[in-house]
Amino acid sequence: MQNTFVQLAKNCKKDMSSFPVYKIAMLGDCSMEHLATAIKGHAYDFNLALEILDTGYNNILPCIMQADSNMYKFSPNAVLIYMCVEQLYIVWCATPENERITFAVSNFNNIQTIWAHISSQCVANIIQFTFAEYDDAVFGNRGCVQPEAFVYQLRKLNMLLIEGGPSYKNVFLVDLFGIQSRIGRDAMHDSKLYLASKIPIAISALPIIASSVVSILLALNGRVNKCIVLDLDNTIWGGVIGDDGLSGIEIGELGIGQAFSSLQLWLKELKNRGVLLAVCSKNNEDIAKKAFEKHNDMILALDDFAVFTANWEDKVTNIKRIQQTLNIGMDSIVFIDDSPFERSLVRSFLPDIIVPELPDDPAEYLNYLKKLNLFETISFSNEDKKRTEQYRAEAGRELLRIEYTDYDEYLKELKMTSCALPFDEYHVPRIAQLTQRSNQFNLRTVRYTESDIDIIKNDTELITFYFMLKDKLMDYGLVSVVILKNHGDGILFIDTWLMSCRVLKRGMEEFVINKVFETAKHHKYKKVVGEYIETQKNTMVKNIYEDLGFIRKKNNFFTANVAEYKYNKTFIKEYQNEEE
What we know:
Blueprint: H1 5-11, E1 21-28, H2 33-44, E2 49-57, H3 60-65, H4 70-74, E3 78-82, H5 85-94, H6 103-121, E4 125-129, H7 150-164, E5 171-174, H8 176-183, H9 185-188, H10 191-197, H11 206-220, E6 227-230, H12 241-244, H13 257-273, E7 276-282, H14 285-294, E8 307-311, H15 315-326, E9 333-336, H16 340-349, H17 365-372, H18 382-385, H19 387-402, H20 407-414, E10 417-421, H21 428-437, H22 450-457, E11 462-470, E12 475-486, E13 491-499, H23 508-522, E14 527-531, H24 544-547, E15 551-552, E16 557-561, E17 573-574
Parallel strand pairs: 1-2, 1-3, 3-4, 4-5, 6-7, 6-9, 7-8, 10-17, 13-14
Antiparallel strand pairs: 10-11, 11-12, 12-13, 14-16, 15-16
């Protein structure tokens, strides 16, 4: 159930002192106060405290052009920009007819100038709203094809934002046009409210828009959903396969089967994007798998699932096993089940898991899940497409491990190889993504956007490495990131060290730290210093520096002398480039 604006306003008054703080400056050519309230109130539900600076009505240019403006003094983590389509139409009406053909391009250039000014003055992310749809009906239906029509230029401007925004790696779009296409112009905009107060968004629509903004903020803070755990019977097909048999389940082009086929198509697309799929079903495994192996209308296949669990144990126990197998946080799992009993059980015993309250009618499942926008992402890389394959390979690796009584012999048998290379343009998206998504093996938990990584890779004062890993079963791609900083007096500081949890306990952490000391020795540093900043999720690495030979100092700093460092044992062999 979506919160109302009144509920969100009440949230703003609640205690957020224990939450991490994220600072936002809001720029707009309209009144932003209500939107700020809705965003802050919605963030409360996700344990995120927003400190918001409302820069005032129609104050965009003074804020961005003056280096000493209140906005820059505020040092925001993000700048949110809302440009009102009603104001844009006033500009359109004042534009000479001979310039209207280039209206969209001119305004997009102006917006790019705003982005560039902000980026030159601070390191904030920029969250830009696209424009709401607005048809002045001057050309009727022909307006969508007539370049001299406002609706044509408006849609072109939105398309320029969509195509041009991603080239600015610190710019993230809120699809206001898309939201309006779902809820309608009348639900989005209250003409009386706008005329009275210059508030462009109807009060009832504010929670929906706030939800979209907060989804981006959560992703920027590394809080993303990585896995969908699925029930089978009456969830991804109609009927109960154990009772109705293979031919009795509903899926395909006929009747309600279409709803389940549409849901499976969507799940398949999420899997292709990099979201993990897992099965948790009360069923005999052979019967449950038969649907995927034998039913001609099944869209999902067995190899689309990272983990397949079908038995008669309770679902809480099975979900815990799935979580442990995948080695991801409970709070990054979405559980989808048609049974209210099972949903309630999982919510009670696993409160961190997201459990959508599915509608009673399967025909409404997909539309409901889409509206929740549970899988927001601020980046995408080719590595995402391989994620299910990588986790399935991990299951094969576990079977191999069982064959060996000696763990060292098992690691040798994997024939692991890795390379360590400086940041480059091609790997910027994956490096940024790893900083955003890694929570457990992340010593200081500093998040970086692609724009940040671009700056870092060109900073001659920093030493950077990304690490690739492959073994005889799988090429894992980029699995670890290290940023080293000169702290003077012969000290090399580990500013960032993070690693994918999929490769833990295989000697990768030893390989990485050995490379750090090899680099320190090459550059004639005397000491390497690391820092551990504790979060709720990274306690697994609180002793990692001591385990690797560092000495604990005060305030969670650790140090080791380069000359005295003893290289840690690892069975990973180094290769020099990715082509080897």
